[in-house]
Amino acid sequence: MLPHQTPYVTPHILHKNYAQSHDHENFSNFMGQDLEYFSQAGFDMDRIQIKRNAPVALLYEDAIRNEGAIISSSGALINFSGKKTGRSPKDKRIVYEETSKDDIWWGSVNIKMDEHTFEINRERAIDYLNTRENVYVFDGYAGWDPKYRIKVRVICARAYHALFMHNMLIRPTDAQLAEFGEPDFIIYNAGQFPANRFTKGMSSTTSVEINFKRMEMVILGTEYAGEMKKGVFSVMHYLQPVKFGQLSLHSSANVGIEKGDVTLFFGLSGTGKTTLSADPNRLLIGDDEHVWSDTGVFNIEGGCYAKCINLSAEKEPDIFNAIKYSSILENVVYNPLNRTPDYDDVSITENTRCAYPIEYIPNAQIPCIVDRQPTNIIMLTCDAFGVLPPVSKLTPQQASYHFLAGYTSKTPGTEDGVLEPIPTFSTCYSAPFIVLHPGRYAEMLADRMAKNNVDCWLINTGWTGGKFGSGKRCPLKYTRRIVDAVHSGELAKAEFENFPTFNLSIPTGLEGVPRELLNPSLAWADKEALQKEVRKLAGMFTKAFALYEKDVDEKVRHAGPQI
């Protein structure tokens, strides 16, 4: 020991680069082949420092030191994504190339981009990454089933993005990382740097593009982390059906602790998918993206990406308590005095989010895979017109119809004078991420349901006894009771009656749920007003479904509302 060093002072303090120089040695642990890959891809290995699968603490330090991140009072890292606080669907492109062009459902969701433009943007992203001192690499898996998983590599310039994908992908063990080899899919995230608007095919300074031939994704001009998560989902939504013959789904899933029965929940934002799949008697397989395989159901992700707006320990204890060390809070306003997040403050965005590893949920099923076919499928909708019954049992054809329609509604905003609910039809409950023709997913779903004799239920968590403004929202305790009755098998044994126009089978009684709630024609005092809304909603369904009519079986076409 040198004479001026005292044994009580951390060397870090005496020599400020102590930790950093150690990090440098330790975390660019690439072997020859990997290094060659980076040089070939155009990375300037003499200039940049690559931090691969860096520990969470190091990512915290870098995000705080270089990106203005803050540690919240519960230990989570608060990050800001800059100008873009949500996805940019209009700027998403898929490269038009021979290996995938015949499979992709081209249109407003999957907009074509030529291969040359992709090369320009990829080069631009790598050139930008070469100007950064720190480049972060995270290698992880998508898909918990080793038979169908893919290896994903994320290359980015923000510690926040590296930590986000550390939480959202499946984290490899040290042994798996040492033998990781070549990735199946690479994301180049240069989101701080804009796309060139004069490049052919660019509509703005933001560009999010996927090339299925090269199995690469390039992000320019948006720092919103959710783009990476959805990029991985888009790739799985293509590969699972096309390469593996398995069905990828935008759904949550859980499994009964006692019986081991699996339920899949479909539903768009605001329908209660996250809330209802969190159940004390069941283990959560996952909250957002799954694959229904020949052998069972598995989660695609290693984490959850939950909305934080109005979050509270009373309403959603599992999510609230998961926001701790290693979790990320995105665009959340905090109290500068004590660093407590304010989940009610939406001054940055209403789309505030948290990303945390799935094992932070106390009743998660780890590993997130169950070798058993689903018993029930629940399709959730929040119908602000108050027309759809709280629960209906669907025939296989109706299940295909409602899966293709993907209906829910947004409640009118109070401030802009809109008094009518706004219907949303999002095909396969995942329109923004759909890659193949919706009919392909629907057909696979119908086949699997028939083969495994799966019951399908349409559950309306929206209005009852009147539309938004005159009726009231179906109380959560009744919806929970209905879901419990689905799981116990009690509902399948109930007596059913027909709800006309939509031709839905609705139970005539269920213990613990008021009789009049189950049937809209009993719940509505004003029968004429009900008929008017029924006809109106039926017309909206018919119009929305016209898009798929020519590609679906006649039986499915007739399974919708008949006016």
From TrEMBL:
Q: Which family does it belong to?
A: Belongs to the phosphoenolpyruvate carboxykinase (ATP) family.
Q: What is this protein called?
A: Phosphoenolpyruvate carboxykinase (ATP)
> Per the record, what are the reactions this protein catalyses?
oxaloacetate + ATP = phosphoenolpyruvate + ADP + CO2
A single GO molecular function term of this UniProt record: phosphoenolpyruvate carboxykinase (ATP) activity
Per the record's keyword annotation, is Nucleotide-binding included, yes or no?
Answer: yes
Pathway membership: Carbohydrate biosynthesis; gluconeogenesis
State the Gene Ontology BP annotations: gluconeogenesis
| EC number(s) recorded for this UniProt protein | 4.1.1.49
Q: Fetch the InterPro entries from UniProt.
A: PEP_carboxykinase_ATP, PEP_carboxykinase_C, PEP_carboxykinase_N, PEPCK_ATP_CS
Q: Which HAMAP family match?
A: PEPCK_ATP
Keywords annotated in UniProt: ATP-binding, Decarboxylase, Gluconeogenesis, Lyase, Nucleotide-binding
- Give the domain of life: Eukaryota
An example Gene Ontology CC term for this record: cytosol
Pfam families the record matches: PEPCK_ATP
- Which organism encodes this protein? Hebeloma cylindrosporum
